[in-house]
Amino acid sequence: MARVVVRPKARRDINGILAHYIDTASLEAARRFRKAATETFAELAETPLIGTPRKVRNPEFRGLADVARSEVQRIPHFLYASKRGSRH
After folding, report:
1. Is residue 87 part of a domain?
2. How confident is the model over 32-83, as pLDDT tens digits?
3. What is the pLDDT of residue 22?
4. Number of compact structural domains in the chain
5. DSSP of 59-85, one letter per residue?
6. How far is residue 42's CA from residue 58's CA, in Å, rounded to a whole number?
7. Alpha carbon distance 72, 43 (integer Å)
């Protein structure tokens, strides 16, 4: 099984989203988002090549895939993943 690495910037983004849900919606909404993200990371570990490759102009973002799980699609945030070594 592959290992999923959540980079510091991504962790800060997730924590910011959680804080936003707690402030504007509810603790339960934040918990649902965290659960969906955690399940998505587990799925990425099991199936690293899931997702739809993104066409981007900025070379910094080449190699990203849009990983959309049904639980995450209802939430207005996106999760992008890259295979190790495909980004610098």
Report:
1. no
2. 989 988 888 888 888 877 777 778 788 777 777 766 554 455 556 666 677 6
3. 96
4. 1
5. GGGTTEEE---HHHHTSS---EEE-TT
6. 28
7. 13
Domain that holds residue 52: 8-82
Question: Both tokens of residue 78?
Answer: 């996106």
What lies within 8 Å, CB to CB, of 30 at 6+ separation is 18, 19, 21, 22
Output phi, psi for 18, to 5 deg. -60, -45
Largest CA distance in the chain: 38
Tokens of 6: 């959540």
In whole angstroms, what is the distance from residue 40 CA to residue 62 CA? 21
CA dihedral 47, 51, 57, 61 (to 10 degrees): -40
